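User: Predict Histidine kinase's structure from this.
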Amino acid sequence: MRKLFIHKPLFRLLSPLFSGTLVYLLILLINNTIDELGANFFGQELYVCIGLAYLIQEYSRISIIIFKRLKWPSSFFLKTILQIISTILINIALVSLAMYLYFTMVLYYAPNSRELLIFNSIFSVIALIYVLLYVSHQFLYMVNTEKLKKEEWARQEIEDDFTDFKRGINPELLFESLEAILVVMKKDSDKAEQITDRFAMVYRYLLSKKKDELVPLADELRTLEEFLQLFSELPYRKMQLGEIASSKMLVVPGSLLRIAEKVMRTTIPSEVEKVTLNILESEDKLTIQYKHEEKIGKSLNINDLQCIKRDYKYYATEPVQVVHDDLYKTVYLPKLSLV
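Assistant:
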């Protein structure tokens, strides 16, 4: 779609043969009658017209390439008008020079104004057709590009909606929690009920806050504590909260829960040691820090937090960051507030 057919080698080779022959035929019809057409069709002038057709079409093609690369004027309409005027003027100059050289050096007399007018008119139309082909191609390209952008936007919107739906449901956590409940309820029904209550509280929070843009940090931390208790029943490294910020700042709902889940899923399981998650506050950031002991080939990085990164970019200019050193891994979230 992006490459116009006039740049194809086969078209450049064959098109001037037909257009030059057509120009010669039109000139014969202007200067002669139909009865004389058969006697005068083949001649030296035919090859001159074909040669001129090659010259004009190659010049028109080159002018299209030049104007396509020009940065000025920026307006497509102004550039098109300038291209048409310059192409026709240079086309007239080339045809007039070629016809003058042919008439004076081959026919040994100067061409009159009528002959120059006929040749210039016909070849100017050919050059104009080339420019109009390019303009129509550009319009078609812009229209199709706009349609493709709308389709891509619609596709991305559907994917984002599906991702949000999947993130809210969190099928992996759902099935793991149900499996844990089924195992525990056979031994201890009271404990199974506690797991069910935590499970219900976490999902109630995730689903009820789905339409809220921001929530207080305190609400998120309360749910995070229940979330960590729920995860303690699953076959992952146990996690506990360490230092906790006591700020009234706001966070995107579910962001701390998703980070904690990523931490647990990338940490080596252990029945002995726990992961301590410190949630600290600086002047412009909320810091989630822990000592990392990650699985081989599975570590927490910024690519695992694309959903959180996308959510926070609507509210803050500072990006979500993941910093890794020998001892600690730290996730930085921009500090949000309504002020």
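The domain at 171-334 is CATH 3.30.565.10 (Heat Shock Protein 90).
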